[in-house]
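Q: what does this look like with tryptophan bound?
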Amino acid sequence: MAKKRILSGMRPTGKLHIGHYVGALENWIKLQDEYDSFFLVADYHVLTTSLNTDHIYDNTIEMMIDWLAAGLDPEKSPFFRQSQIKEHAELFLIFSMLITKARLERNPTLKEQVRDLNIDNLIYGHLGYPVLQAADILLYRGEAVPVGEDQVPHVEITRELARKFNTQFGKVLPEPEPLLTKFSRLPGLDGDAKMSKSLNNTILLSDQPEELWQKLRKAVTDPQKVRKNDPGRPEVCLIYTYHKKFNENEVPEIEAGCKSGELGCFDCKKKCTSAINSFLEPILDKRKHYENNLDEVKQILASGEERGKKVAAETMASVRSVMKFG
Ligand code: TRP
């Protein structure tokens, strides 16, 4: 039986952090064997929140290096930029005729962004963010979309657009399902629920051991555990969350030590640093290779774009044909 197809993507915001890994990349790496996979660099989507295009390309390259270093295999899964495959713009235009302004205004992900970023003059393209995302997915006839919880409303809009297109013009497009990432959120170093570049609370996939220690050393823990022998509450401590993700074997011991007070935060952070370091070590090694061979990275992207372009062109040919655009 043919493998099912997945498509997912990220906006190129530069070097990735372990929250990206846990929320998306780890899952993509697992899925790439089981599915026919396509991975997109959503560089046009960056424009929805910033018109500064100076760093988009460099950020893309940094992100490609992280994808490769973490274990995405470009032979199995082509990587490509939205901006290099014109069909994204074409399908986006057609889709924008199939959805109402009111439907887009109801999108909870948009509402959250408007609130968090204090946007009072929403641009048309930002309102249309999920329409472009639907084009990203359906151009490759993605049947499943591995994403975190926050993107589910966009996959729902994608399904609605596919249905609308199919009933209006002819059945060409699949209705994709979201494939939810289980452990989808990692808290930031400041204790915020979300690790994010704009909050400046991240651990990067490219952090060197010493940088990592400096970050963890300053991280907040249980505020009630002031000195070593004070009993702590692991369930409120973000370091404990990191242990659960990166240091599973030692968790029972750490939990007991924290609760009894025997294990102090300094030592606990040392253990955590060492666990995250062991996870990052192979990634850092591979990263070094790609940093020293940027031409290889650019070549990988170019060949992914060639492969992506073929599929996108096929889909657009069917779309145009059922719409009787010659
Ligand atoms: N909106 C996604 C995000 O912010 C990025 C994205 C763009 C995407 N196009 C996509 C994700 C298509 C999945 C499929 O994370």
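The chain has 14 helices and five strands. The CA atoms of residues 252 and 265 lie 16 Å apart.
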